[in-house]
Amino acid sequence: MSLTQHAPALPAEVPAAADQAVLIVHGKDRTGIVAAISAVLGKHDANIVSLDQHSDNPHGGAFFQRTVFSKPGLKAALPAIEEDLREQLEAGFDLEYTLRDLSVPKRVAIFASKDGHCLLDLLWRHRRGDLPINVAMVVSNHPDLADEVRSFGVPFFHVPSQGPDKSAAEAQHLRLLAGNVDFVILARYMQILSGDFIERAGVPIINIHHSFLPAFIGAGPYAKAKQRGVKLVGATAHYVTEDLDEGPIIEQDVVRVNHAHTVAELQRHGADVERAVLSRAVHWHAEDRVIRHGNHTIVFP
Amino acid sequence: MSLTQHAPALPAEVPAAADQAVLIVHGKDRTGIVAAISAVLGKHDANIVSLDQHSDNPHGGAFFQRTVFSKPGLKAALPAIEEDLREQLEAGFDLEYTLRDLSVPKRVAIFASKDGHCLLDLLWRHRRGDLPINVAMVVSNHPDLADEVRSFGVPFFHVPSQGPDKSAAEAQHLRLLAGNVDFVILARYMQILSGDFIERAGVPIINIHHSFLPAFIGAGPYAKAKQRGVKLVGATAHYVTEDLDEGPIIEQDVVRVNHAHTVAELQRHGADVERAVLSRAVHWHAEDRVIRHGNHTIVFP
Amino acid sequence: MSLTQHAPALPAEVPAAADQAVLIVHGKDRTGIVAAISAVLGKHDANIVSLDQHSDNPHGGAFFQRTVFSKPGLKAALPAIEEDLREQLEAGFDLEYTLRDLSVPKRVAIFASKDGHCLLDLLWRHRRGDLPINVAMVVSNHPDLADEVRSFGVPFFHVPSQGPDKSAAEAQHLRLLAGNVDFVILARYMQILSGDFIERAGVPIINIHHSFLPAFIGAGPYAKAKQRGVKLVGATAHYVTEDLDEGPIIEQDVVRVNHAHTVAELQRHGADVERAVLSRAVHWHAEDRVIRHGNHTIVFP
Amino acid sequence: MSLTQHAPALPAEVPAAADQAVLIVHGKDRTGIVAAISAVLGKHDANIVSLDQHSDNPHGGAFFQRTVFSKPGLKAALPAIEEDLREQLEAGFDLEYTLRDLSVPKRVAIFASKDGHCLLDLLWRHRRGDLPINVAMVVSNHPDLADEVRSFGVPFFHVPSQGPDKSAAEAQHLRLLAGNVDFVILARYMQILSGDFIERAGVPIINIHHSFLPAFIGAGPYAKAKQRGVKLVGATAHYVTEDLDEGPIIEQDVVRVNHAHTVAELQRHGADVERAVLSRAVHWHAEDRVIRHGNHTIVFP
After folding, report:
1. Which of B19, B52, B101, B245 is catalytic?
2. Out of A220, C25, C159, D166, which residue is the most buried by the measure of CB atoms under 10 Å away?
3. Domain C106-299, CATH among 3.40.50.2300, 3.40.50.300, 2.30.30.100, 3.40.50.170
4. Do B16 and B132 touch, CB atoms closer than 8 A?
5. How far is CA D250 from the centre of its chain?
6. Most C CBs within 10 Å: which of B128, B253, B255, as the mutation test of the C interface?
7. Which residues of chain A from 39 to 58 reach within 8 Å of chain D, CB to CB?
8. B234-293, pLDDT tens digit by residue?
């Protein structure tokens, strides 16, 4: 691991909506949940800015709600609001919830290898102020992208990972991540993470898979797509679980191709879809628009 | 007008969600609206099935909410629920609202001319049980589609409309519609409606325009698209207002075309987009998913 | 098999391009093929209307060319043109070719079961003059769609197919098809064809699969898509081979869905994609725009 | 104008197809053109790699053909091939043509202002080897993007342009371009070019317009789109002519938006479409896949 780095200027943070918070609630559906939540917010004079709600079965299914509310002097008021919500939601309804100040962007580590198209797209959107995240670091098993990353004022850590035993590298990863990030993005990171690492990292990990899942699981999806003669190639952003390529899907998209495209051209078109799909998934995750439920997701885009 | 008709079997109604109602609320945004609505529903033991909310500016903008709720024995309970809502919403917040039993499909008249692709697509979808509407009648200024329409068990009325004076035809239209329909669909109806007719009809009128508005307003959009060499052709479903082609847009879509397409082929591809766009707009309107606001719409699809 | 039928009026044939022929050539790529073909056409004063060419590897790969040419008095001239082409292409270059008068639409049998959305879409496009085919018959293992089909003036044959032994039904199918059709469309036909039938039918068979292949092979793709939480559902038109769902893909498309869609709604949206994809595949096949090569296709749309 | 610059390393050129040339032919359609062209190529033992042909009317319309051929030792052979083509095409058929060695990428100047998303997307794609162009220079009326551009090893020239009189700036532009570029890209360059400049530049100029033309001509298209409530926003790449926003369209695309999007969000989504559309248009122009004809284009993608 290279610990020397290029005195990075801190990236300018995206100016997030001041005095706004996001509340995610999910659990077993019951009559009165929306009323209870909005009564608490009303009691604190918080104004609901947006509210998305989903019930997968009105008769005893699962309930999901995302609420954004504004409240002048939010920071000072949050603890009291949270206390009332806890009382109502956990005690009254046995629901899980998260409450977060939207002016504090989530901190992220981006893992990449040699191919930088997804990584650079994220860094560039972040610099334009389009991605409400705080890029704490980029980690790579190759040194190739170091200069490029540091030119964005983002720390770059090279953690080589050779041979079948990844434990030393993963131990370094865990030291880098510990306490520093709220989620991890695998931006075409060409190493398989161990179940142990996923568990100990303890934060959500988003991967971009270079095919329309579940169509072309595993390596070489563009060659397989060419061979099968498919007319669309795609990409899938999903949460990482121990089952490779099987985690909950956040977003997917496709692009039309034809017989004249070589495998290299399929890759080039696919790369455009990959970065579009990944940036949407990251954007939604950063704004708590994605709720995991079993092996799928509820997305309020 | 032909009053003889083929003793139409009543079309099988789409089995709508029993014991569910939809509530639309809109007006000036203020703190506490969501809480007030959900408190009323909670008081009546009604369970919220879905809730969509939009505020175009959290600081004093306009507020829009669509709520679907279920309540065993809905029909009997609706009057009391409505009374409480009226009190809360109109008295307390000065908001407009509509409340409707979802098991009662909206009644519609479809106007068409000679070209049946949009009309037949709607009738087909309805027969398959995919469109929650009650097709009360089809009205046309040409007799060509009579047999086809009646084979679906739907009444067909031929109201000729020649010459510049449409007042006689429009008077017949108004007699047919009066009390019988909740909205009107212009499914490639090639006559311009007078402002007087639109006002006296007193129900929403949805039109399908055969281009991506506002790109090719007026007649001959496919010829214009060919001449301009556009690479996409589209269609637009909108509410009809006195300003031709200028009403609030409900839905739009496009399809890719190229230099090799003749005007006839552009029309053929465009026709596919027209029927897809119109059927989506009708579906959303039928389920109260579209709220008009000024000259645009809020759509909760 | 019901042999009685409703004295069907013959469907109005699509007026195909008079005096135009389509020539498909494929084989091993070599220098001079295009020149040889265009020299023959030039010798006969035939004018090239469109020419599409593809070589999957300029150094000794496979060569594919589709040429449409016009020639006044085509019918009388075709034999002499074909003789010259045979001499040049088979003798000179060892290429395969087909030559066909475009004014003669291909004859087709459509197989369906109970669900008519793909079948009716084809019949309706054909009646509008948008599909250059001659629908010789509809064959179904259920009687449900008989009246609907016959109202289009198309013969309907009910061939029940129960139990594991399909040989009796397939024997009837073969008698119906023999000499009468140039290709077969499976428009949501819910029976598996035996390899023996496919071989003895001796004509191309196009199937519409209700998922994005190879993602959800086999039965119940919409339920699987819901369970996996995919964000797009699709459909695939392909040529039928003995390997179920593995034949050469002609066309695919997808539509965006989300967590709120039930399996029934996924099916409804999927049905729209199915009929769009199938109609494009049929259109292209009918105009000889699709060339099979190994297990994939070259499509000149 | 800043003439000092950062000793730019030359950008690595895209390795173009060696020993391949592209031939564009257009003019009045006549029998025998394809044969004549392929006969010349056959005489020189050149192998046709791909051939696209279009006739807008087989009876005396306009004819367009793009042919890519390979020939070992192309550079040495080109003059003789060209001589034979000139004789056949100009003398025999009165056709226009261009012949170009595909291993020599076209040289381009990119004009930008302050917003770098389209510019940087082009530079990235070029650095990845995905765009077969030679970026000779970037010209801007603002200095903001200088460092970013030079980090790609590309010269950056700042040519201020204030006030209504653009003649001084345009004179500088012409001196920079003269003899150095084969085409110009306006990558969100916020200045209007004079007709005099367009004529004297003497090379094709490609602009990216931030709306679906002809829907929202002129300034502020996203605000107009928001006001009109459109459900799709788009972008259009076109050749620049003296009539602002009226030149031949090369490529267009759209993205779905909804009522919840602010003008700023429409701009963000629109920016993604802009760079995708512009990069496709540039790619196609760079490979001579676009033929201008009157006020529209023939594109062989």
Report:
1. B245
2. C25
3. 3.40.50.170
4. yes
5. 9
6. B128
7. 50
8. 999 999 999 988 999 999 999 999 999 999 999 999 999 999 999 999 999 999 999 999
